[in-house]
Design brief:
Layout (H helix, E strand, L loop, with lengths): L13 E4 L15 H14 L3 E5 L5 H13 L7 E7 L2 H11 L5 E8 L2 H8 L3 H16 L4 E7 L6 H13 L4 E6 L6 H14 L7 E6 L6 H10 L4 E4 L13 H10 L1 H4 L21 H12 L20 H9 L14 H5 L8 H10 L6 H17 L5 H14 L1
Parallel strand pairs: 1-2, 1-8, 2-3, 3-4, 4-5, 5-6, 6-7, 7-8
Bound molecules: 3-methyl-2-oxobutanoic acid (KIV) and zinc ion.
């Protein structure tokens, strides 16, 4: 198991994946329980530290998904399985019940702290929130050891009030305090300063891990997180392909690759020698591309071609000058090797000699579960394409399946 307590012992970044909870809140991205299970297994293979598997009180489907992921993915070697709960007893009970089978379980409870949310959404005073937050953390603690607390809309909350709520939540037993920029409003310098302010002003902050959660309304979520990490955040909450509410969440693949490619820049903020090669996360970067395709195919959320790291053009060179440069030396226009994200390995997957089993198994990895009839049709079409095209890429496979299954 990778999470060490006390939190001061954390000298790397914990990756908390919320694709199945906040990611699934993307308009149009609903997943059934089996699909969630497939994604959770792949997230475990990717090496995420914590999977936020859902919001058990929200619906019977979410409850079942969290329960099945807790049973089948939460083993003694991790990852931690987490369930979201508002700061109410009913939500916390549902989360505890769904998480019960997991080896390592976490309840993530939240309540808003910004005046806008207090006045218009919760209709509660600051004093009430300051009372409820620790009470509900303590209640969650009666079910699990590992409790995360989030002051929702922290990015727009009065810092002095935020410090008070966080101190009370930690005193009540929160092991992680998560700082959400719920509406993607802050800028990197502000978000970094907010984390520094929390470190400097919350007296018991050393008893908890500082986490960050952020949305991409201004396209700043990843930049904000990197600034937060430099200022002491040790858990980043993110989603595959950056899917999530509105403009989405911070993208896991971008964060992980930024920390990897620029590790010499980040190392000193983690007390490491500048030239340390040790990874700052636990992620197996070679699983990134495959995970991205799987999530895109199962959610139906397309990836823009110029999306950093996993977009179709991320490693493509179109202009003559760039092509010439790359042929002379890759480093002229490439800052990372496509193989690092598992792209080159996955791009050329099958050829005309590949059999039906290999074809079906690759489709399953990409998130396609076809009926026998559709599989047969797709396989015939694949053979046809493979005869004409030496290298069949994942994109070819996806196009074949979409054509064939839409035609039926
Ligand atoms: O964006 C947000 O504030 C959230 C919380 C529940 C952490 O998703
Ligand atoms: Zn969120």
């Amino acid at each position: 198991m990778s999470i060490k307590y006390p939190p001061q012992a954390i000298d790397r970044i914990l990756i908390f994946d919320t694709t199945l909870r906040d990611g699934e809140q993307s308009p149009g991205a609903s997943l059934n329980v089996d699909e969630k299970l497939v994604i959770a297994k792949q997230l475990a293979k990717l090496g995420v530290d914590i999977i936020e598997a859902g919001f058990p009180f929200a619906s019977p489907g979410d409850f079942e998904a969290v329960q099945r992921i807790a049973e089948q993915v939460g083993t003694e070697t991790g990852p931690v399985i987490c369930g979201l709960a508002r700061a109410t007893q009913a939500d916390i009970q549902a989360a505890a019940q769904a998480l019960a089978p997991a080896h390592y379980k976490r309840i993530h409870t939240f309540i808003a702290t910004s005046d806008i949310h207090l006045e218009f959404k919760l209709k509660k005073s600051r004093a009430e929130v300051l009372k409820i937050a620790p009470e509900m953390v303590a209640y969650a603690k009666t079910f699990v050891e590992d409790v995360e607390f989030s002051p929702e809309d922290a990015g727009r909350s009065d810092p002095e009030f935020l410090y008070q709520v966080l101190e009370a939540a930690i005193a009540a037993g929160a092991t992680t305090i998560n700082i959400p920029d719920t509406v993607g409003y802050t800028t990197p310098a502000e978000f970094g300063a907010l984390i520094k302010g929390i470190k400097d002003n919350v007296p018991n902050i050393d008893q908890a891990i500082i986490s960050v959660h952020g949305h991409n309304d201004l396209g700043l979520a990843v930049a904000n997180f990197l600034e937060a990490a430099k200022n002491g955040a040790r858990q980043l909450e993110c989603t595959i392909n950056g899917i999530g509410e509105r403009a989405g969440n911070a993208a896991l693949e971008e964060l992980v690759m930024a920390l990897h490619v620029r590790r010499q820049y980040f190392n000193p903020f983690f007390g490491r020698p500048v030239d340390s090669e040790a990874s700052l996360t636990n992620i197996d970067t070679r699983q990134l591309y495959k995970t991205s395709r799987l999530v895109s195919n199962l959610t139906g959320m397309l990836i823009q071609p110029n999306k950093a790291i996993v977009g179709a053009n991320a490693f493509a060179h179109e202009s003559g000058i760039h092509q010439d440069g790359v042929l002379k030396h890759k480093l002229t226009y490439e800052i990372m090797d496509a193989q690092l994200i598992g792209l080159a390995e996955n791009q050329i997957v099958l050829g005309k000699l590949s059999g039906r089993n290999a074809f079906a198994s690759r489709l399953r990895e990409l998130g396609f579960e076809l009926s026998e009839t559709d599989l047969n049709k797709a396989f015939l079409r694949f053979k046809d394409v493979a005869d004409k095209k030496r290298e069949i890429t994942d994109w070819d496979l996806e196009a074949i399946v979409k054509d064939e299954t839409q035609a039926s």
